[in-house]
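call fold(seq) -> tokens
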Amino acid sequence: MGATRATRATRSKIRAEHIDLKPLPRDEARRVMSQISGVHRACWPDKDMERVYAERIECPSVDNQLWLMRSATGEIVGFMHGVSEDLELDGTPVRLMRAVAAAYPEWRISLRGFERFAAATFIKVALRGRLDGRLPLLFPYFATPTTYRTFLRVMPRMVPVPGVEPDPKLLRLRDAAIAHYGLERVPGRAHACRGPRSPMPPEARAHWQNHRAPEVRFFVEECPNFGEGEYLAGLVPMDWRDLALGPVHLSLGVAREWLRRRRRDAARR
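ret:
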């Protein structure tokens, strides 16, 4: 990556720069988005920025938000992007929200704080969608077990969930979203799709492959080639009940993660 080296001290000094891409002219939005090219190339080396512009800027969005994660020296070390579209899926008017977050490897722990920014934005977009008579849905495309576990903690009604029979309507909507974006299904697996390669260190792959948590085992069995172009496609409903409980689940998830880190740090002393 660039000149800035991540340490616990420098990670604590990151700042978020928020940019609303929706009102920007197309060329200006592309220029702003081009700032993430270094991080994007490090995380998805096979996916060029022209494809990113087509998927993230030139789609008919109703909301389009970018957060740049800057180090203490101002270097962009990560980003989060969210885009929302009004569609009709399986005969249902929906507001479909998509998000992607990425950072240079040694800065990825700092992305956890960005979850709150995205959650607050998606809740606002979902509320507006509900008031417009649309069903708000979040369409996550999980590259690693880490993000899948995080979503399960804060959005328990998500599909798929290990050991839980998926809601047939949500599954149909998820499959319709997969078809809408032209994602390639992995034959013989109900929830896996193909996507750009996202390389992972061998020790990280081994960690997840040997993990015993049920949700991790589910992810690895569904996407054994995760990091090499296999993703788990999910769907998160954001109806009134979910919008009311989502912030509660998010706060509890953040608190649990904080306690887990405190216990881990105490054990190392």
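The longest strand covers residues 76-89.
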